[in-house]
Each structure stands twice: as C-alpha cells, then as structure tokens.
Design brief:
Bound molecules: FE2/S2 (inorganic) cluster
Shape: elongated
Radius of gyration: 30 Å
Oligomer: single chain
Strand content: 15-25%
Number of strands: 11
Order of helices and strands: HEEEEEEEEEEE
Length: 170
C-alpha cells in the first residue's frame, strides 16, 4: 500500500454496514411494538380481573321457599350451586373441580356432580364419590336474612371433608 493513500471501504462493505444498520433499526422497532403490546395486554387483563373479582357484598341467591329440600340449583350470577340438603339446610358449593379446576355441572338425573374433564364425581354436599378428585368441592359462607339466602362468594372455604356445621339451617 502506498504511503498517504487511505484505505477506502469498498462498496460491498458499505452496503453490508447499511443493511445491518437497517436490520438493527427494524429489530428495535419490533421490540418497541412488542413491549407496547405486552404493556397493553397486562393493563387489559388487570382491568378484566378487577371487573370479575368476587364481590365482598353477599349475593342474593333467592328466597328460602324457592329451593326444595334435596335440590341443587345453579346460581349463575355467583358462579356457584345452592344445595338444599334433605334436612332443609343450605350449602353454597363452588363450581370448580378440586382435581384440576374444570367447571363441574350438576347432573339432576344421576343426582351428582360429574366433572367432564377426568370423570370425578361429587355428591350434593360436595363430597367426592369418584377419583381423581380427592377433596370435596369448596363452599362459600352463607346467611339467611329475612327469608333470603345470601352467599358470600368472596370468602371461598376449602375443606378436607363435609361436616354438618358447613350447612346453614333456617
Ligand atoms: Fe375434574 Fe380432573 S378437573 S376430574
């Protein structure tokens, strides 16, 4: 190389550098868009969670006379079942299977809850009849006030077995 002559990057090198700069700019923009999308999703899910958070106010399930002894009634507003036992007492049962959390429907013909996911069954007190679920359905405290059944869905109770004190008499 001659003295005084500067080495000039060739055209191919300049093109490569320019391409890499554009690629970095593009990746930066994609990262910014993803961060924005993630932030928006987090805010949206927080907002939805607070909209669906269980109320601390009791839910009016209905008048005592509306539930026959021995019946199980879904209360869609509170996402639970109101089970009126043969002795006339009430139990508010969670719809969530204690195995892996599927929603458990009541089968009136078979007189039991049958989980569609893995076949666990529960009786009207929430006690498991068939595995894989080993624990009873959770229940909610309730109170009978002026002939109305009021259920506190913000205070879910788990248990290892059904005890008669969990049911509320009139
Ligand atoms: Fe109900 Fe598995 S989630 S049996």
């Amino acid at each position: 190389m001659e003295a005084g002559v500067e080495h000039q990057p060739d055209k191919e090198g300049r093109n490569r550098r320019s391409f890499l700069n554009r690629l970095w700019a593009l990746l930066g923009m994609i990262a910014c868009l993803e961060a924005g999308w993630l932030g928006t999703s987090l805010l949206r899910s927080r907002k939805n969670r607070s909209l669906h958070a269980p109320s601390t106010e009791p839910i009016d399930a209905g008048a005592v006379e509306a539930f026959k002894p021995g019946s199980v009634t879904p209360i869609p507003r509170g996402q639970f079942y109101l089970s009126r036992l043969e002795d006339g007492s009430f139990l508010a049962l969670s719809k969530t299977c204690t195995h892996l959390g599927c929603s458990v429907p009541w089968d009136d013909k078979q007189q039991k809850f049958i989980c569609p996911c893995h076949g666990s069954t529960f009786d009207k007190t929430g006690e498991p009849l068939t595995a894989p679920a080993l624990r009873p359905l959770d229940y909610y405290p309730l109170r009978i006030e002026n002939g109305m059944v009021k259920v506190f869905t913000s205070r879910v109770q788990s248990r290892s077995s059904f005890e008669p004190e969990q049911a509320v008499g009139i």
